[in-house]
Design a protein that fits this description.
Elements lengths: L2 H24 L13 H31 L2 E2 L8 H16 L7 E5 L6 E7 L2 E7 H6 L2 H16 L2 H28 L7 H43 L1 H17 L2 H12 L13 H10 L1
Parallel strand pairs: 2-4
Antiparallel strand pairs: 1-2, 3-4
Length: about 290
């Protein structure tokens, strides 16, 4: 589900922007030469350090941010849980053991009418699987099992770490290009105004290029969804995984047109919005699973 991607990207943009502001105010990583030109090698090194730092900080914060922003209630096995909550934890842990995960993921529930779930965390052995109350209300047990297996497969596949490396590369280009564009913009104003224009332009271009760079992350996410579907099918059984996708498809067809435009970014991936979707088209996901 796209909550994992959305939270990671939002955290990444916030962290990257904060690092950029702090370093600019401290005068760290100067890449403008005495003659007013740009030292491209220094800028590239600076961009890589900032880019990968921002990406890895986002990864480390990912689980905490998910809990805070989504209001996730973590279900701890030693707490007084309801029978259904305890069953939910046990199912996630059973799937995690089957996937070879040594330390069991935290399991949580958050209040939302959306049919949604996500997995996040900095590593396989420090992860979180969270499901919405809407998913638990809308889906039957077999479909819930398929969704949980899909999320556990994301953890087992190390998708968050792989995405962090990709995001680090994207961030490097974002920081690099934003500062070149800002330097060019500062050449069109008076010399006394150039530092202010450069500072503001860096922030504007960095946010803009981060949004454009997210298209690369979205494309990677769509690619990894097929692998998570396959992993979910291996863990829970192909029938349950296909059943879960069919129930998701039925849900998206029932909700209103306004909700559909939002849902397409979260669970289905409409063909018309393919570039902006974190998930492939549900029909294509079902077709690929049934063909295996």
């Amino acid at each position: 589900m796209a909550k994992r991607i959305f939270l990671f990207l939002l955290t990444n943009i916030l962290v990257l922007t904060t690092i950029g502001i702090v370093l600019s105010l401290l005068g760290v990583g100067s890449y403008v030469t005495a003659g007013g030109g740009i030292d491209l090698i220094s800028l590239l090194v600076f961009s890589a350090v900032v880019g990968f730092s921002g990406s890895f900080i986002s990864l480390i914060m990912s689980k905490w941010m998910a809990k805070m922003m989504m209001g996730v209630k973590v279900l701890k096995p030693d707490q007084n849980l309801s029978a259904y909550e305890r069953n939910l934890v046990e199912r996630v842990h059973r799937l995690a053991r089957a996937a070879g995960i040594r330390k069991m993921p935290e399991v949580g529930v958050y209040q939302s009418r959306e049919v949604n779930a996500f997995a996040t965390g900095p590593s396989k052995n420090n992860s979180l699987v969270a499901v919405s109350t809407g998913l638990l209300e809308e889906m039957d047990d077999a479909a819930v099992e398929g969704v949980l297996a899909h999320e556990v497969a994301h953890i087992s596949n190390g998708d968050m770490v792989t995405m962090t490396l990709l995001q680090g590369i994207v961030n490097t280009f974002v920081v690099f290009l934003a500062r070149i564009a800002a330097w060019i913009a500062s050449r069109f104003v008076r010399e006394d105004m150039a530092p202010i224009v450069h500072f503001i332009a860096v922030l504007v271009f960095q946010i803009l290029f981060s949004i454009l760079g997210s298209l690369v992350v979205f494309a990677f996410s769509r690619h990894r969804e097929f692998h998570a579907d396959k992993g979910g099918a291996d863990l829970a059984g192909k029938d349950k995984m296909v059943h879960a996708l069919r129930m998701l498809k039925g849900y998206t067809q029932r909700i209103s047109s306004d909700q559909s435009s939002v849902a397409s970014l979260k669970i289905s991936g409409k063909r018309g919005l393919a570039l902006f979707s974190t998930h492939p088209d549900l029909d294509e996901r079902i077709r690929r699973l049934e063909a295996k």
